[in-house]
Amino acid sequence: MATITLEYNARNRMAQKTLEFILSLGVFRTKTPKTVLEQAFEDIDKGRVTFVNGPGKKTVGDGGGKDKAQDG
Description:
Helix content is 31%, strand content 0%. The protein is mainly alpha-helical.
């Protein structure tokens, strides 16, 4: 499978319509990159992340909630 990357002026209506037509043929599929948040959740699900940097360095499994001493 080959990957094609296209650059075009998004304001050019002819370029937009041409791309829409080509994609409507169903021969090609588009691939949207994952967002940073989606990548982070994937890392957590696959176990590549075991803690979160921040106050108290909480583990991923504890939900990052409040400390029990703060409940009150």
